Amino acid sequence: MKIATAAYNLDWLDNWAQYEDKLEEWVSGAADEGADLMVFPEYGAMELSTLEGPGVAGDLERSIHAVSERMEDVQVVHSRLAKTYNTYILGASAPVIDGPGRPVNRASLYAPDGRCDHQDKQIMTRFERESWNIAAGGPLKLFETSLGKIGVLICYDSEFPLLGRALQEADLLLVPSCTEALSGYWRVRIGAMSRALENQCVTVMSSLVGHNDWSEAVDMNTGMGGIFGPPDIGFPSTGVLTEGAMNAPGWTYAEVDLSSIANVRADGHVLNRTHWAEQDSRVNSVTISPL
């Protein structure tokens, strides 16, 4: 398969048609390159708040609600594009109000037949807890697709090994991210590469990029696209299948062969995924040794 992962910049939108045109341009461009899967980043939907004007876009709480109210229409657009271009699309995540509580951070995966399902973020960063008041959402899911088994770890979730381990059957782990500083980008990237090592799978990181003075929520963003595997047989020695250019909007592409994942899991130089359980007896028998 061919995977496209985005370094996605937000735009000021004066009307809904501009949003549809922008998405179509991105998706059609990746489709022209033969992409079977396209991955957009965390909180890429926040540009929808600009449709309500600067007073809403510049106010954190009002922008969250404005974006959530648009998500049904967003699903219609993504389903149409997935069908039109015969591709899987992980849409940019958004704060979604789904019930009486606080919003969750949700990314939806769209299939080429137009069907969709979603993955909610599991563990909130400090700014999501303390400023945004975003809540943890529903459970982790494993999506069975024609491209293989796919899991989604939204940004900070990728930094937690047990979340990755819960998705050990996934061939692909998608990691949409939104990070303000270079240090944040590298925390998520290191997490994504670590999950690829532990699970002997491919991880796909997308990033929000660019500065947006109109937003209190996503005013500064640093990152690039990257696709990673275990540094083992059938993969690059660095584990990096491809990476983009820092803060440069656009797609980054890589070819991925599911047989390479199956092969490294069965007969890699190391077998991290198979040997994972051997940690249990070791970590439960730590002794104190005074010196």
Can you put this structure into words, describing what you see?
- The protein has 291 residues and is an alpha/beta fold.
- The chain has one domain: 4-Layer Sandwich (Nitrilase/N-carbamoyl-D-aminoacid amidohydrolase), CATH 3.60.110.10.
- The chain is built from ten helices and 14 strands.
- The chain has helices at residues 16-32, 54-57, 60-68, 71-84, 126-132, 161-166, 182-199, 258-267, 272-275, 279-283, and strands at residues 2-9, 37-39, 88-90, 94-96, 104-110, 116-120, 143-145, 148-152, 172-177, 202-211, 220-221, 226-228, 240-243, 250-255.
- Strands 1, 2, 3, 4, 5, 6, 7, 8, 9, 10, 11, 12, 13 and 14 form a 14-stranded mixed beta sheet that branches.
- The protein is globular.
- The model has no long low-confidence stretch (mean pLDDT 97).
Provide a concise account of the structure shown.
With 291 residues, the chain is α/β, with parallel strands linked by helices. It has helices spanning 16-32, 54-57, 60-68, 71-84, 126-132, 161-166, 182-199, 258-267, 272-275, 279-283, and strands spanning 2-9, 37-39, 88-90, 94-96, 104-110, 116-120, 143-145, 148-152, 172-177, 202-211, 220-221, 226-228, 240-243, 250-255. The chain contains 10 helices and 14 strands.
Order of helices and strands: EHEHHHEEEEHEEHEHEEEEEHHH
State the major sheet.
Answer: 14 strands, mixed
Mean pLDDT: 97
Under the CATH scheme, which architecture would be assigned? 4-Layer Sandwich
**Form type:** globular
End-to-end CA span: 55 Å
Percentage of residues in helical conformation: 25-40%
User: What is the SS-derived class?
Assistant: alpha/beta
> Would you identify the CATH H-level superfamily?
Carbon-nitrogen hydrolase
Rg on CA atoms, Å:
19 Å
Strand content: 15-25%
Annotation, overall tally of beta strands? 14
- The parts where pLDDT drops under 50 for at least 5 residues are none
CATH class: Alpha Beta
The CATH topology turns out to be Nitrilase/N-carbamoyl-D-aminoacid amidohydrolase
